Amino acid sequence: MASMITLKRRITSIGNTRQITKAMEMVSASKLKRAQDYAQRSRDYRDMAYDLLKRLNAMSEVKRMPLFVKRSVKNRLYIVVTSNTGLAGAYNANILKLLTEGLREDRDKGVKSHVISVGNKGAQFVRRLRDVDLKAVYQPFGDRPTANDVRPILNTIIEEYANAQIDDVCILFTDFKSNLVQEAKRLQLLPAPLLDVDSAPLPISNFEPDVETVVQEVTTRLIESQIWQAVLESLASEHAMRMVATKNATDNANDLIDDYTLELNTARQASITQELAEITGGAEALSS
């Protein structure tokens, strides 16, 4: 059994840690509400934009456009949305697991893998891998990201895909379902996915002023909305998972403090009992 001094130090140390995790839990809970509302506002627009992107891909007029050209995949680019810090449960681990699966498939097929990381956790992981090109690292975009924040990423993928430097682009992010349910997802950006087989036939389309101008601008904005929404969903998921993780840490600290307090009381009682026994023994020795 540890000494009483050691037990007191452990209780004090765990108590200090509990104060930190409790404060982090409250901060995450307050940020979660804002991030959740922010993500839900544009979710329907994201879904409609993705459907429109697929419909554009089904039109014969756009087949010759640079962003709709389908090539044999020799270079694949992953946009990975992670966090800068830990204490967020499995938030980063789920995304990195999804990335690992994709990298393994690329390696088996002889595809060169490239990564753009949003958040240091993804960058730290990729730097330890061989034969994976880390193109860029972006810091998380704060609690209220804007379209301007994701535009450098957008410009990079548009330029490199149009110049045939990469043949496939997908984004890995955490989709926010509820406070307790978040799902790591992989979303195809380029080339644009195809329509479902049972979708309604497409009407004949007229483009003004011309096909190239309309499709280039529209496609860019549609892809931008996918990246932006993925960042919003990931932000809400991060706050939710951090809130749960820090709450669990606080509960575990409470349990440890209870256990060590009981052990401390037991040790104190044993010490008192031993002292009484020594006093009684000494008194008997003097009286004999």
- Global outline: elongated
**Rg, Cα atoms, Å:** 28 Å
**What is the average per-residue confidence, as pLDDT, rounded to a whole number?**
85
| Spans of at least 5 consecutive residues with low confidence | none
Put simply, the count of helices is 6
Fraction in helix = 55-70%
- The CATH superfamily title of the domain at 42-242: ATP synthase, F1 complex, gamma subunit
H/E series:
HHEHEHEHEEH
Q: Give the neighbour order of strands across the main sheet.
A: 3-2-1-4-5
Descriptive report:
The protein is α/β, with parallel strands linked by helices and 288 residues long. The chain contains six helices and five strands, in the order ααβαβαβαββα. A five-stranded mixed beta sheet has the order 3-2-1-4-5, sandwiched between helices. The longest helix has 77 residues, at 211-287. It is elongated and about 115 Å long.
Topology:
Blueprint: H1 4-41, H2 43-57, E1 75-81, H3 91-109, E2 112-118, H4 120-127, E3 132-138, H5 147-162, E4 168-176, E5 182-190, H6 211-287
Parallel strand pairs: 1-2, 1-4, 2-3
Antiparallel strand pairs: 4-5
Main attributes?
single chain; elongated; Pyruvate Kinase, Chain: A, domain 1; alpha/beta; 288 residues; 5-stranded mixed beta sheet
